[in-house]
Amino acid sequence: MKWIKYAVVALLSITFSLAFAGDKPAGKFSGYMFGDYYYILKNHKSELQKRNGFWFRRIYFTYDRKLNDAFSIRLRLEMAHPGDFTTKATAVPFVKDAYLKYKSGQHQIILGISPTPTWELIEKTWGYRSVEKTPLDLQKFGSSRDFGVAFKGSLGESGMVKYHLMFANGNSNKSETDKSKKVLGAVSFYPTTNIIVEVYGDYDGLFDAAKQFTLQGFAAYKTDRIRLGLHYVRQVRKVEGSEDLVLDMASAFITGQMSEALNFFLRVDKMLDPNPKGDAIAYIPFDPTAKSTFFVGGLDFTPIKKVHLMPNIEAVVYETNADGVKPDSDLIPRLTFYYKF
Question: For residues 102 and 70, is the Cβ–Cβ distance under 8 A?
Fold first, then answer.
């Protein structure tokens, strides 16, 4: 692991040198950190019960630089503690974003590792990634990043219709290892200032046998004080030697402002099929044999700007599986902390 640390130090040194190479900084540094103190009160895995402790679930360090009126770049590093309840390791940084952006009017072309359209809008509207991932992200239905070329923008002078299209490797921010490619696309509609409707689809397996495809719809209503969201997704995964695996999921959330320094949030996700990847979900593994309903709710206290303290509870309730067994429920009280710089 030493070479990784040396590479990161060298990268940061070069970045700082570039950023402060003139009389004024040429770019901007920013970032944020969030994590929890957690206590596993109940779990379908008996060995996890009573586990508790502190962890960072995400640390971002970002450098943005505008090259001219049309071109800009971003380099972002991410690190976090392992969430498998087994691995003892430090938070090792890796490249999260690394792209060149060209902007002309209402349109952008982005080349490199950049956010996918899979849940970018949903995560922004939910607004509480620091508390929990969006449903697709949590259940491993896709990736927030990919390496490729993306096209983003809005249509018409009103900007009522927006698009985000991407042609990518399909390996997230990892290196490419096969001939298969992934195409992703989302179109969102803003009929009023308060309403958002988005349709999304992706196809993973271009130039090769189809691996999987995803279709989803999202609708939201938002004001300065409240946000409501509804979300439905279907994913079909090709399983070699057997029938295709079809997974359906629905989700709803509400967030609201109670006072200037206090907000609340509540979300419910319903897995209409067992998720075979559920056991590999970090920080809150799901039983992979049963349908589940996930709940998260809590309060968001902001003592000063850019600092959030959020007591919350996550719970998972399971249905009886194909073997006639109903897994025990999961219950995890947490104090989530989040701060930006």
Answer: yes
> What is the enclosing helix (H) or strand (E) of 109?
strand 107-115
CA dihedral defined by 142, 143, 146, 151, rounded to 10 degrees? 70
CA distance 17 to 298: 42
Residue appearing with tokens 């907000």: 263
Question: How confident is the model over 263-272, as a mean pLDDT?
Answer: 98
Q: What is the pLDDT of residues 298-312, one digit of tens each?
A: 999 999 999 999 999
How far is the C-alpha of 128 from the C-alpha of 147, rounded, in Å?
25
Q: Do 250 and 229 form a contact (C-beta atoms < 8 A)?
A: no
pLDDT tens for each residue of 141-169:
999 999 999 999 999 888 899 999 999 99
Q: pTM above the 0.85 mark?
A: yes
Q: Which residues contact 234 (CB under 8 A, 6 or more apart)?
A: 214, 215, 216, 246, 247, 248
Q: Which domains does the chain have, with CATH numbers?
A: 40-340 (2.40.160.10)
How far apart are alpha carbons 73 and 54 in whole angstroms? Answer: 34
Query: Please, which residues bridge with residue 295 across strands?
Result: 268, 315
How many Cβ atoms from other residues are within 10 Å of residue 318's Cβ? Answer: 21
